[in-house]
Amino acid sequence: MVNSQSQLLDKLRKAVFHRQSLLQQGEPFRLFHREFDGQAGLWIDCFGQALIVHVEEQFDFLHSQLRAIKGEIRELTGVEHIYVRIHRRRRQEVKADEVFLLTEAAGPNEEFIINEKGLRYVIRPRSQVNGGFFIDARDLRQLVRLHAMNARVLNTFAFTGSIGLSAAIGGALEVTQVDISRGILRWARENQKLNDGLCLRSQMKFIEEDSRTFLAREDRRIQKGKIPYDIVVLDPPTFGSSGKKPFRLVSEYQDLLSSGLRVLGEGGHLFFTCNCTRIAVDDLKRAAQEAAMRLNWQIDIFNPIYPPRIDFGSFQKGHPSLRGIHLAVSKNKT
To answer: Model confidence over 212-227: pLDDT tens digits?
Structure first.
């Protein structure tokens, strides 16, 4: 536990020094990551012009310490706008987070434009817990981009569309972005418009629907002759709700993997993200193998995906830092 603001500042200095190369690049990154940088319950994301400081409720004493050293934080990072988000949790209940602004800003609806690997995105620190952009999915976006040339891409649980845009700039012929939230899809369209000049080759569609329902309907269409997808991205939340259909990843990941494989074509790639610490790599591998066997697929590639090591720290097999899996399939020849 941090006993003084001077100790906290020292930990922040070390974290910034460790990530100096990322800070100089000017792209989004994790500036401070929990125990890896010496303080449980605290993580900080850097978005160029803005920092979002996350504090778990039981560590909210850190808020006053952060306020006391806000000038030093600005000097260390060169970032003007610093937000603090206190995460409220009551067992399975998620209460509304509290968001404080440590430094002066334009007003209650601030937004910023960030850049990552040539793409631009809108960030709103007050609107979403992560500002509308998952920093820990950086390597996942790059993987999708690398495999996207001439591909038909389905991005489910699309959120603000960053993975779909990565596919588009990677040369995808078609990108379908599916999310149940109208407001989130509006945000995804904003991100598309920011990058219109870069992604002209791709046809991009936005569909407001429960991703599970969409996958089931696409499966039926493919059974009737529709061309399957070359890349399927399943990026579900840990839990949520959509009308009368509550969602819990721990009880649905097997069905989701199966649904994703059913709409995937020969030689296709599936990316499945997992933010639930109760689901390990071996669980995902077993579920993927069982689903592939039922469909007469063979898995040619199975690789775990982790958050970037430089800003999220080291990891081991089964470590809760798992970000997801990447697999490629082909018809079983046996």
So the answer is: 999 999 999 999 999 9
Q: How far apart are CA 247 and CA 235, in angstroms?
A: 13
> The CATH number of 5-107 is which of 3.40.190.10, 2.30.40.10, 3.40.50.720, 3.30.750.80?
3.30.750.80
Kindly state the tokens that stand for 264: 């995937």
Q: What is the pTM of this model?
A: 0.92
E-strand ranges in 88-148 read 89-90, 93-94, 98-101, 112-116, 119-123
- pLDDT tier at 232 (50, 70, 90 boundaries)? very high
Q: Report percent pLDDT > 90 for the chain.
A: 71
> Looking only at Cα atoms, what is the longest distance across the chain?
66
Task: Please give the structure tokens belonging to residue 30.
Answer: 């994790």
The number of CA neighbours under 13 Å toward the Cβ of 289 is 8
On the question of pLDDT at 94 being above 70, the answer is no
Residues 111, 160: Cα–Cα separation, whole Å: 14
- Tell me the two tokens of residue 205: 């569609």
Phi and psi based region of residue 32 (left: phi greater than 0; alpha: psi -120 to 50; beta: remaining): beta
What is the Cα gyration radius of the chain?
A: 20
The ranges assigned to domains in the chain are: 5-107, 134-331
Is residue 288 within 8 Å of residue 325, measured between CB atoms? yes
